[in-house]
Design goal:
With about 60 residues, the protein is mostly helical. Helices cover about 75% and strands about 0% of the residues. The protein starts with a helix and ends in a 7-residue tail after the last helix.
Length: about 60
Amino acid sequence: MKARIYKLNEYLQRVEERLSLEQQRERPSSYMLLHLKLLRLRIRNALSRAMQRLAKPQLQAG
């Protein structure tokens, strides 16, 4: 596994843990929920791009 993919997986796991904890709070912060959800989306997008580059290395030139 490439280092970038490993790091992105680690970050995604941490963000999902924090998001879960925030959602379980009695009064979750709407700002924190929004921030964590957007961060999760950005990490997932970066992870999918990294996986595509790994699966199709010929696309790196373009």
